[in-house]
Amino acid sequence: MKVVRFLRNIIGVLLVVFLLLLGVFFQPDKSLEELTPTYTNHQSRFISLYGMNVHYRDEGVKNDSIPLVLIHGTSSSLHTFEKMIDSLRNHRRVITLDLPGFGLTGPNEENYYSYNYYTQFLGAFLKFIDVSVCDIGGNSLGGGIAWYYTVAHPTKVRKLILIDPTGYPTVNTKGALGFKLAATPVLNNLIQYITPRSIIKQSLEDVFYNKELVTEKLIDRFHDLAIRKGNRKALISLFNHRKKLDYQKIATITCPTLIIWGDKDQLIPVSNAYLFEKNIKGSKLIILQDIGHCPNEEVPYIVSELILNF
Description:
By secondary structure, this protein is of the alpha/beta class. The protein contains 13 helices and eight strands. The protein has helices at about 1-25, 30-40, 80-90, 115-130, 140-150, 175-180, 185-190, 195-205, 215-225, 230-240, 270-280, 295-300, 300-310; strands at about 45-50, 50-60, 70, 95, 135-140, 155-165, 255-260, 285-290. The longest helix is centred in the first third of the chain and has 24 residues, at about 1-25. Residues about 10-25 have low confidence and may be disordered.
């Protein structure tokens, strides 16, 4: 009986703490209508696909027959490539989109996300906008989706650009605070209701090597889109249902591949860059010094130049 009473007391205390945290730090969802004026521009388009209203942009040289498709990472959005597109739009047609579960697109109906799902979704999206062959690239999760799509559809990809992509197992990495919380059972349920800007700020500082780039405007963007209705629940689902990638498939990639990596990446170690280079025959690896997990955000014009030269 004493043990039962003790457990009841512990549960009671935890419940009180949870309610106190909820009362102090509760952050309501933001609706699509509330976010649209700030996070769309004249290039923004929405299409109905897989039960979602998918936000994307199609910019640059319209008669470029093989466009460049860029895919963002976890908890990010198409905005992560905006500065890169400033350099690319005069030379290439560039397509960016908010993946299901992120940005203005928001969650899918099943609230289930996997590389297979994203590959199927991406194929349907490109078919919808009448793109049969493309150059494709991505950062982090987006890089993982890019190579996974390339493996599944080798004839539909001319060139592949990987920017600190997921793929091989990671060891001895610091990681980002927000992702750690999203991956921790019980605690991760809290972030559906409690998502302080301080956690977003700390997570971005874990990702960026140059902390001066973590501006209030950047924090606002990541925070606003993180609490877009349904996105927090989607993030938890993504981490709860993570499956190990079959990274042996990477060795089957035969198209020309550019690998770009920040040497100060604390989420995916630079040692993984050499695994990609080794296993994708003929690939080109460029290591950027004193750059973190998102070179596309830290040195966008350098990354754009590397892509154009490639």
